[in-house]
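Data card: per-record layout.
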Amino acid sequence: MAEDKSVFLNPYNFISFPQKRAEAYTDTDKHTGVIEYTITTKTPLFIPNSSSDKAFKESETVTDHKSYDFFSYTNLDSKKTYENEYHLPVIPGSEMRGVVRNAYETLTDSCMGLLNEEIYPVKRSYEKFIPGLLCQENGKIVLYEASSMRIGDMFVDGKPPKRFEKDRNGTEIFFSVEGKEGWKKPVKNFSNNFKDAKKENYRKKGYLLKWGMSIEEPEKEDKSNGKKADKKDNSNGNETDKKDNKKARYHIYQLRRDRDTGKYKKITFFTRDKVERKLLAVVDSYQKQPAVSDDNKDAYEEYEKDLQSFLDGEIQYFPVNYSALDKENIYLAPAVYSKEVYDNNIGKLAGEFAPCKENFCPACDLFGHIGKTNKTCKGSGIRFTDLYVKEEKTPENYNQYYLENKITLQTLGGPKLGNVEFYLKKPDKNASFWTYDYYILNWNVKVAPGELRGRKYYWHHPQVHFEKVEPTNLNKTVRPVKKGIEFKGKLYYESISKKQLEQLIWILNSGSEQLGLKLGAAKPLGLGSISCTVDQVQERKIKLAEDRLVYSVEKIPLENITYETVGFSQNVKEEFYLIAGLNTVSKNIPITYPRTYEQKNGKMEEGFKWFGLNHWIGKAGNGMIGNRKNVEILKTLPPIKTDKGLPYDPQVERKKQYWNYNHSGNGWNKDKNKR
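The structure for this 675-residue chain is written out next.
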């Protein structure tokens, strides 16, 4: 890859799925023996010793900061630190088993055995949700359309008005409004007590929503010109993340009647499970945000608790907000601007490449599987030993295995499945936006499941640079093994076919073709690249000679074991060789999670900014708009074969188009097929 200072390489990409999953091999020959192999660290490697998460002094000076030493069989004392104390590094056999299985699955067109099928992706929605009320009727949960009104006073010092402290979400509120304009103003005449409401003649009824969080502060005077600053009216539950925002008012949700029939407007029915999955998942995703404020966290927890009370029949009506693709596909959330929990989980989208349940694939057949009955279960035919350093030093020299200094890693979270431009294929060449449930084509919503890109793999970094990172409660300090350390291990095999044996040999000898595997933690930062070479393969043989059983051990020749001869998939070969290639990536291109130009030379923080820019919304280019149809994804993760990097500014081409528009006088894309 040639140097291009305007682009970066995303740390991972995807090897495409073949058209069909392979079936287990039918070979009946059986072989038993051992493969002895060596791995060499091509970049620093880290596998944690989990016996202590306070291994270094950083955990003493920074609250809730976790620090780990490299894996060893030393049981670390959590009350002690190990700054200048070193242990013999060990690579657990289970770690190598996982790495080899992943490669084997890919190269044999097998299933993704370790896939978490039950994950329902969650993503922030660009659609403005509308008020609704859930009600339990005849064993079903009915969603009704509702209207929303602000109620009471603004929060003071981040705390709600005292009169609401003991009220729950869904509390029955009686109220009145004064004149036609009263609907546009906060309700001041209200009570949660029926007798008091009757006495005061409050004839209207609604239900309390205690979800008025993170609303922009009231407009302020701009001292430079005497004008008031513009303020977006997001008074009903906008969930912006600005630190200087204040909470606003609570709301009353009132059932809406159909003008023709006079009946309350039913939207759809839900099961309890579906409400929990759709609504609780949204609340949970906000609770898990590292930067969530204490006030917001309390509100999330209260809303979740009150929802459970409603589901248990303790509350008659419960306020929500919803967005409907159609009558069958509806998203629920506590706020107007929120997230969507998709109906298609990862297992469904993986299709036949989800973990095998029956008709097992080559990987499940070799590594073992659990069937529906005892008869359909199969144990593994292979066993990995732990790996120990090839050159064992004396204890006083154990430090020579490690980097000179321990390092504090950048904050790394789990997979960001909401980044659909990376994890999903573009469903149509003219699609402007897409998710796991639908896509937008020519300003129309098309309900259709998304298509996964394939199997996730990480590029090998030609060199690793560690950014200086201060310890926090969100990151970790670790002590990796350095580059160039050799570990020896064994793989014992029993009653497997010659084909399976040679496939394992090829994977464990892939370093001879300058291919690498990824092992351990912090792969996106470049850690964990290893090269594998086979030292020898021995097979145990038992023969009948002169009426006697003769036991012998024979060496298996390694020559002529190639990708083609072992029967690996041609569907994935090119992509695998590229992303597994230790020399594929040039030293001149940075490998990093997406950054903007402003973040280019700084610390990797606020990674969402690039993705925000990548979602084009009109002339503004980004922000909340209230309509998913007006969003356009600008850049997608290129296929492995053509991945030359992504621009720091994903809007650069769009900006040029707008510049041409503003200076041409011809109008902007009159053809709606060309957004």
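Known properties of this structure: Residues 430 and 441 are 6 Å apart (CA to CA). The chain has twelve helices and 31 strands.

See the next section for split statistics.
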